[in-house]
Design goal:
Blueprint lengths: L26 E7 L6 H14 L3 E6 L14 H9 L7 E4 L1 H5 L4 H11 L4 E7 H5 L7 H5 L4 E4 L5 H6 L1 H5 L21 E3 L9 H9 L2
Parallel strand pairs: 1-2, 1-4, 2-3, 4-5, 5-6
């Protein structure tokens, strides 16, 4: 399934969510996070996923509030969304605060709501190796991995912990062989794949610290 300009959705805001479902048929990567702020590492993951997984789009889902992160130092949603929009350098990258419209804070709930709104879309959840390693901390994480295919991007100093840690151990038999990665979006979860490639060590925390020191 390629990028068909006739069927590709345009960027939408929380006020433009289809109320009764949607008929678009696409492969869409979901890259959720605080984006506090968004940075080149996020863009790199998005572009790699589009290329390697054959996705039509990647949605940069700016969370209204990450349950695992402190609220102190968290920029307003509009500011974080603007930083993500600055990375949307092609129609295939969509920055959105869709979770605010859905009223969800946990990934499992978000996926379930998105499947109702977009019943014909093939979703893939994108995450860095550092996040994958900490997946057992997520609310109802075992249900989550059964709800959507997962693509894991490499992150410096996190890959060994991710691929040898608890998450990878529990999900070992569901890892997709490298030769089948492009079909990830069509697979029935639980299923996950590791996407080797260039690594970017930049972090939002480092960016905030550098800005504060100026």
């Amino acid at each position: 399934m390629g990028g068909d300009s006739a069927s590709s959705p345009s960027a939408f805001s929380v006020d433009q969510l289809p109320r009764w479902g949607d008929g678009r048929r696409l492969r869409v990567g979901l890259l959720g996070g605080s984006f506090n702020p968004a940075h080149e590492g996020h863009a790199q993951i998005a572009h790699r996923a589009i290329r390697v997984l054959g996705l039509d789009q990647v949605w940069l889902m700016v969370s209204p509030g990450n349950p695992l992160k402190p609220t102190r130092g968290m920029a307003p949603l509009a500011e974080r969304l603007a930083s993500a929009q600055a990375l949307a350098d092609s129609p295939a990258i969509v920055a959105t605060a869709i979770e605010a419209g859905l009223g969800t804070r946990y990934a499992l709930d978000t996926v379930r709501r998105l499947r109702i709104r977009f019943p014909h879309v093939r979703f893939v959840w994108l995450m860095g190796a550092d996040v994958f390693a900490e997946l057992p901390r997520w609310s109802r994480w075992r249900e989550f991995v059964r709800s959507v295919p997962i693509a894991v991007a490499p992150r410096p100093h996190s890959n060994v912990a991710a691929l040898r840690g608890r998450t990878a151990s529990v999900l070992a038999r569901y890892r997709l062989p490298s030769g089948q990665v492009r079909a990830l979006a069509e697979k029935t979860p639980p299923v996950w794949a590791f996407l080797p490639g260039q690594q970017n060590g930049i972090s939002a925390t480092d960016l905030r610290r550098s800005r504060a020191s100026v």
